[in-house]
Specification:
Layout (H helix, E strand, L loop, with lengths): L45 H8 L26 H14 L54 E8 L18 H5 L6 E8 L6 E8 L4 H4 L6 H11 L1 E8 L8 E2 L7 E3 L4 E5 L18 E3 L4 E6 L5 E5 L7 E2 L4 H5 L19 E2 L14 E4 L9 E3 L11 E4 L4 E7 L7 E9 L5 H4 L6 E10 L19 E11 L2 E2 L6 H6 L1 H8 L7 E6 L6 E5 L26 E7 L8 E9 L10 E2 L13 E6 L5 E5 L11 E5 L10 E5 L5 E8 L4 E7 L33 E7 L1
Parallel strand pairs: 7-14, 11-12
Antiparallel strand pairs: 1-32, 2-3, 3-4, 4-5, 4-6, 7-8, 9-10, 10-13, 13-14, 15-16, 16-17, 17-18, 18-19, 19-20, 19-24, 21-22, 22-23, 23-24, 24-25, 26-27, 27-28, 28-29, 30-31, 31-32
């Protein structure tokens, strides 16, 4: 669920060990011709690189700015007073008139519930387990700890809407797919909807598709494109079970079941709505966009809506590469990854009629899962970038704060603060909280001498990578704080605005999750093997390793516990990797020889006890192991003790973890299993493990699925 990594390893494309089979019938299966073929390491396929992020690592990183990506205060610890001064200096540089710190106006409000955030409960964990042994990347198996079992809840192609029919891989159509569960789930939440705990809503992104293993060779090429568009987007389905702790089953044709696709109308909200930058021939108002694509991670709001991040949208378009704005977003004139421009002119943005169509993607979208008739919305106020997702907390003054990362090498971390205040008794008003407010980008400062950050991952003399940071304003209460850019320009070309602001270039900020127990914010930096290479940004204390193939996790503590604050303290909790082969690992001081090896952190979640759960995308590159889900305590003697809970099948990545530990359940989306296969030679049989003797209507190949793991 992420961009591709890089030519040598990064996750989203950390790699395939087997470049795959040649094309057989002129279809796009020839893996040997893919840009990343032969250049990836670890377990990720070059196919994933091509389909998920348009082989981004085979191309120059879009961020070519020479901004002040990091400034160490050599030999001097940064005090809170000094940090305030830095915040003030940044404000002056950007013509900001607001104060450096937001005042706390009321007692701490509750953090966002949902998506395995534990709903604020405390107490001992209900998920004791013995860590599993890492599984070889070649194994086509789903592995859980002793005492647990697993079953799929729903698979690609399962019918969910009235008129849907049982999945038959040899009898597919766009009309059938529009009534069925989509492909490649990512962000996932299971929202219990009744007091008895026997009914729920399952909400999931559908990030991208792989036509080469989905469709039989004789299926019409145009129909393949139409099915692919219908398999993108978002899905909502009602669940039921007999009692708490039992397995959930989905309910076909239930009233709240819904599919949102690449063609569903979305309302555009916020200051950029109606801007000339968003108008097209099909939508001269600039207020209605069709579809959502490349949806990666997300979040569940305190008012019960789902936020979904549009990530690698650039690969869906042909566009002029002459403009700096398009270049900064990785848009170019090449044929798109999916070829949708052949059936819908809007995906060919080289024409004047649709030059702005790419500007209508790259937002946080909000979906109300309780109302299948509601129009989903794209919020320009949170900026346009390759959003991994967004997660919301309620600040002390009851303003809504949303954190989001831009999942690209050398891009940035952002924070939104609402203008309005959360009212638990007024859901209708809360639905507009993300349409107005202020947008900030992060600048990190280390507290160790620059000479001690040498790129090897060796800890500085104070024993940890840490320091202060500041949230630099881009838009504050409807006014641009970036010289030479209007509010609309900042929100549509947010990357360019953040370049001007001097934000810190990060190693691919993916999921950003606030802890419901402590309020601290955790940032998964998946990897960046171009860090410190010729012509690229060098190391800094927040990104301390050259050729960072394994990634790290940052812990942020907002000043005075106020999420609207303009300054924060930070430290690196995990410097990931396999300690047996990589000495530059760190697990918050926990003994390296007692942890499960972990690489390329991606999605994050919490259990009710406050433990962090990490799903991986490229785990671990050094020893060719399957991706998985890992538990990490954050407090006490066990802080940093990484323990692997599960492993996913061949070629797959672990997405959308949901931790209902009080219910004894864990949910994950198994994305792109068998990615490296072909129609004739499938590379996975997950989740049904039907062999080559499959009967009529059965599929001897992989079906991306949402899985529940529960105690036997």
């Amino acid at each position: 669920m992420t961009e591709l990594s890089d030519i040598q390893t990064d996750t989203a494309c950390p790699s395939c060990s087997d470049p795959g089979a040649p094309a057989t019938d002129g279809r796009r299966t020839m893996l040997s011709l893919l840009p990343m073929a032969g250049h990836t390491r670890g377990k990720r396929s070059a196919v994933t690189c091509a389909l998920k992020c348009d082989s981004a690592c085979a191309k120059p990183a879009p961020n070519t700015s020479d901004n002040g990506y990091f400034r160490d205060i050599a030999g001097k610890a940064i005090s809170r007073r000094h940090a305030l001064g830095l915040a003030g200096a940044g404000a002056v540089a950007l013509a900001v008139g607001s104060s450096g710190l937001a005042a706390a106006a009321s007692p701490q409000a509750g953090l966002a519930a949902g998506r395995g955030h534990g709903h604020g409960h405390g107490g001992r964990t209900n998920l004791p387990f013995k860590p599993i042994t890492p599984v070889a990347a070649t194994e086509d198996t789903f592995v859980v700890p002793q005492g647990y079992t697993w079953e799929p809840i729903i698979r690609w192609g399962d019918p969910i809407l009235p008129g849907g029919v049982p999945f038959d891989v040899n009898d597919q159509s766009a009309e059938k797919q529009a009534l069925a569960w989509g492909y490649n789930n990512d962000y996932t939440d299971v929202i219990v909807t009744n007091r008895a705990g026997t009914k729920a809503l399952l909400c999931c992104n559908n990030e991208y598709v792989n036509a080469d293993i989905m469709f039989p060779p004789d299926l019409d090429a145009t129909e393949q494109l139409r099915i692919s568009m219908a398999a993108h987007g978002f899905g909502i389905v009602e669940l039921e079970r007999s009692a708490p702790g039992e397995k959930w089953s989905y309910v076909p044709s239930a009233p709240k079941n819904r599919r949102i696709t690449a063609s569903t109308p979305f309302e555009i909200t916020g200051p950029a709505a109606g801007s000339d930058l968003l108008k097209t021939a099909a939508d001269p108002t600039g207020t209605v966009a069709l579809g959502t694509i490349g949806n990666c991670a997300g979040g569940t709001t305190p008012w019960g809506t789902i936020l979904s991040g549009e990530e690698n949208f650039n690969g869906y378009f042909r566009a002029s590469s002459a403009t700096p704005e398009n270049k900064r977003y990785g848009l170019n004139e090449n044929a798109s990854s999916y070829g949708w421009e052949a059936i819908e002119p809007r995906f060919d943005a080289r024409s004047a009629d649709y030059a702005n169509e790419p500007n209508r993607f790259g937002y946080i979208v909000e979906i109300d899962p309780t109302d299948p008739t509601s129009t989903p919305r794209k919020h320009t106020m949170l900026g346009r970038l390759k959003h991994e997702g967004a997660n919301v907390v309620i600040a002390k003054n009851r303003k809504v704060v949303a954190y989001t990362g831009d999942d690209e090498r050398f891009d940035y971390l952002y924070k939104f603060v609402s203008k309005g205040r959360y009212n638990p008794n007024n859901r209708k008003k809360n639905l507009d909280l993300l349409t107005e407010g202020s947008l900030y980008v992060a600048r990190f400062h280390g507290d160790s001498p620059a000479t001690e950050i040498d790129g090897t991952g060796t800890l500085p003399s104070d024993g940890k990578f840490d320091g202060y940071g500041q949230w630099v304003p881009l838009v504050v209460d409807g006014r641009s704080k970036v010289a030479g850019m209007s509010v609309e320009e900042v929100l549509v070309f947010t990357r360019l605005a953040a370049d001007k602001a001097g934000a810190t270039k990060m190693d691919r900020c993916e999921d950003v999750e606030p802890s419901p127990k402590t309020g601290k914010v955790y940032v998964a930096c998946t990897n960046n093997s171009q860090r410190g290479t010729t012509g690229k940004a060098g190391v800094d204390e927040a990104n301390p390793r050259n050729s960072n193939r394994d990634g790290h996790v940052i812990e942020i503590t907002e000043d005075d516990g106020d999420h609207t604050s303009r300054i924060f303290r930070w430290n690196i909790v995990i410097v990931a990797g396999d300690p047996s082969v990589n000495e530059s690992t760190y697990f918050a001081g926990y003994p390296q020889d007692k942890v499960s090896p972990i690489s390329c952190p991606d999605n994050l979640a919490f259990d009710s006890e406050g433990n962090l759960w990490i799903s991986t995308d490229g785990q671990p590159s050094s020893i060719q192991k399957s991706d998985g889900l890992f538990k990490v305590p954050l407090e006490g003697r066990e802080r940093g003790h990484v323990q692997q809970f599960l492993a996913v099948p061949r070629d797959a990545e672990t997405c959308g973890p949901v931790i209902h530990d009080r219910d004894g359940s864990v949910f994950v989306a198994v994305q792109h299993p068998g990615e490296d296969g072909t129609w004739e030679a499938q590379n996975s049989l997950f989740p049904d493990y039907v062999d080559g003797t499959a009967g009529e209507g059965e599929f001897a190949g992989p079906r991306p699925s949402v899985v529940q793991v529960f105690k036997k």
